[in-house]
Structures are given as C-alpha cells and as structure tokens.
Design goal:
Layout (H helix, E strand, L loop, with lengths): L1 H5 L3 H24 L6 H26 L8 H18 L1 E3 L2 E3 L1 H18 L3 H24 L7 H13 L1
Antiparallel strand pairs: 1-2
Length: 167
C-alpha cells in the first residue's frame, strides 16, 4: 500500500474516478456504435462504480487501520467480481444455436477490472488494459474478417454448424 495509499486527497480521488468513467465510456463506445446493450453509459457507470467501491474500501482501510484493526480491502474486489459475473451472465443468451452478447459481457467485465485498477491508483495497469482491450475490440474484429473460413453472419454460422454436424 505505502505512499500512494496515503495520498488519497480530493484531487487524487477525482483523478481516479474520472479516469475510470472515461475508460469505461471509451470501452462502451464500440458496443454502442454496433447497437449492442451495455454501451457508453453502462460501461462508464460500471467502471465508475467499481472505482468508487475500491477508493471507498481504501479510505475505510486507512481509517480503521489507524485504530489498530486489520481490515481487508481485497474483499471489495472479490464482491465486485461476483456481482459483475452475475450481471454479465444475465446478458448472455443463446438463440437458434447462436450465442449473443458474449463480447458485451466480457466488455463489462473489463470495465469492472479497469474501474478497480483506477480506484486503486494503478495507472500503468489502467493504460495497458485499455490498450489491450481496445486492440482486441477493434483490431480483433478486423482480423476476424480477414481470416478465411470464419463465418460472419448468423446465417453463415448456422450453415457452418450444420455442415459440422453432417460430417
């Protein structure tokens, strides 16, 4: 914990919460642009709320630690992981053999993780996670279109499954 933990003034908290909100909104932009659920606002709110809970846990840790208690701020992260897992699972559904909203659910999971890192003041982790996340969402889609044999539309996916079942 060390020096960074003790430097939680209003400016630092504002930076952590603002960065989480911005990072979540940027992650949600792709989902929003494609008309998927959980877009800019949802990802921004998920990242912000994750950061708020993390900052709050750290502040409580500072307060209670000074009174001789042994608080554990990592329990907040555990709770966030369980909660977002539940929410993400609710987004995923199967229709006519096609899985829908899997990437949207994964995007929310990443927004949560980035929010936690923002709340903890782990700016290098935030930057790298944003970089890798955006590469996966944008360049991953482009690469997928360039790889021959990967079905893109629902109809192509259905045909591929039917062909595989016939073999």
């Amino acid at each position: 914990m060390g020096e960074a933990l003790l430097a939680l003034d209003t400016l630092e908290i504002t930076l952590r919460l603002g960065l989480a909100t911005l990072a979540g909104a940027v992650l949600g932009f792709d989902r929003e642009r494609r008309g998927h659920p959980a877009g800019i606002r949802t990802n921004g709110i998920v990242a912000l709320s994750s950061a708020v809970l993390t900052v709050s846990a750290l502040l409580i840790f500072i307060d209670l630690r000074s009174e001789g208690a042994q608080p554990d701020p990592l329990r907040v992260i555990q709770g966030l992981a369980q909660a977002i897992g539940f929410i993400a699972a609710g987004l995923i559904f199967v229709k006519s053999g096609d899985v829908h909203n899997l990437t949207t659910a994964a995007n929310l999971w990443l927004a949560t993780a980035i929010g936690i890192a923002c709340g903890a003041g782990q700016y290098a982790v935030v930057g790298l996670a944003m970089l890798f996340g955006l590469v996966l969402v944008t360049l991953g889609r482009i690469a997928k279109k360039l790889i021959p044999g990967i079905p893109h539309s629902d109809a192509e996916k259905r045909r591929a499954r039917e062909d595989a079942a016939d073999e």
